Amino acid sequence: MGRFHRHSDGTVHDHGHHGHARDVGDHSGYTDTGISRVAVLEDILSENDRVADVNRRDFATAGVRTVNVMSAPGAGKTTLLKRTLAALQDKLRIGVLEGDIATSLDADELDGLGAAVSLVNTSAGFGGECHLDAVMVRSGLSRLPLNDLDLVIIENVGNLVCPAEFDVGEHAKTMVYAVTEGEEKPLKYPVMFRAAEVVVVNKIDLLPHLDFELDRFLDNLAGVNPTARVIRTSARTGEGVDEWCEWLAGIGGIGGAPPPPHSF
Length: 264
Ligand SMILES: Nc1nc2c(ncn2[C@@H]2O[C@H](COP(=O)(O)OP(=O)(O)OP(=O)(O)O)[C@@H](O)[C@H]2O)c(=O)[nH]1
Ligand SMILES: [Mg+2]
Hints:
By secondary structure, the chain is α/β, with parallel strands linked by helices. It has helices at residues 34-62, 77-88, 105-110, 134-141, 185-188, 190-195, 214-224, 241-251, and strands spanning 4-6, 12-14, 65-70, 94-100, 116-121, 151-155, 172-178, 198-202, 229-232. Strand 8 (198-202), helix 7 (214-224) and strand 9 (229-232) form a beta-alpha-beta unit. 38% of the residues are buried. Guanosine-5'-triphosphate binds at residues 71, 73-79, 106, 158, 202-203, 205-206, 234-236.
């Protein structure tokens, strides 16, 4: 989203020069066009929110819950989802909306694990965007049998900032954070850490090999999002994946009853 920002109160503004102790780079080229750029962005975001509401209504009508899984590239979303599908396929009817800029690599990885998978490549008609917005999600939903699902998991495009700025109609935003990313990331990139209801701290199998101070990361996270639920996992060994699946099953609204037979 470049220099434009939407705050939690819904306001949008151009990241201008006022109010900042230190400015970086030459922004003078934006002064003349700033107002029209803000207006265009407001239109884009309000159109996004309108479609997000339509998605939300469709989820409600189908009785399906939806979780948006975001992260920086490579934090382990797909690996975690593979374990998730293996663990939950007999308990929940799951659809995965797989978002990537290009390729079907992740969608192919998730194929055959008992979930209906719909791929959205943002390079195919969506300008190669670094995130999924509500319109892109809507296009992917048309290929999922929503009425036959309990839970839709959206794997967002790998990016530590932009995906968190878009409401896609989901019930919960979550993020996967890998301990290889460094303790300071919640402070430097607060938007996603703040938006996430659950932060999965992944790759904990690597801790013995890293100079990573988990407590310092958790303090930094609490500084930007004191209410985030933290789930520690290794998608490689499977440690902690049960806790993540229990949370998902809770949001999926299934109280232990097996789902009707299905074949995706
Ligand atoms: N050691 C270790 N490696 C992991 C773990 N989870 C994922 N990986 C590895 O990290 C790399 C990236 O994992 P992916 O699951 O593809 O990550 P992703 O978030 O889906 O990546 P993008 O979709 O490209 O953003 C792969 O080589 C995985 O095998 C983990 O818990 N421990
Ligand atoms: Mg992936």
